[in-house]
Amino acid sequence: MDRLWSPWRYRYVSKKGLKECIFCTKIALNDDKNNYILHRAEKNFVLLNLYPYTSGHLMIAPYAHVPSLSETEPSTLQEMVLLAQRAESALRKVYSPSGFNMGLNIGESAGAGIAGHIHMHVLPRWPGDANFMTTIGETRVMPEDLETTYAKLVEAF
Fold this sequence. Notes:
By secondary structure, this protein is of the alpha+beta class. Helix content is 32%, strand content 17%. It has one domain: HIT family, subunit A, CATH 3.30.428.10. It has helices at residues 10-13, 22-29, 74-95, 133-137, 146-156, and strands spanning 37-40, 44-48, 58-62, 99-104, 120-125. Mean pLDDT is 85; it is low at 132-139.
């Protein structure tokens, strides 16, 4: 089996003692533009990932601070999936990707950077968008900054 090492991820998976939940903090600030919150729904909100893998990498998080799907209200989960559908449409409109990665990392050992608050990642993907620059140079090549991404996507939502 081949292994592709990603040492740049260590700083995210090794955080200990995070005192505040970034999702709870961002939503309480009521400063959507500066916190890259694209949309507020009844039970969830949509925001850009500050450390995106691709342009348009966003997340959907419930307002409730819950660590797992089993502890989340069914209506919140239903809305989360409907927001993922809406995110897919918005990202298709703005970026015309040929595919998507969508998913949740539940728990620290599963790679959740914020293990106590579930959130779904939605990443647009294109052929050839993954290269070895990330591994060799510990650098992601992003074609636009978060402000530009936010301006494009907030209109689509």
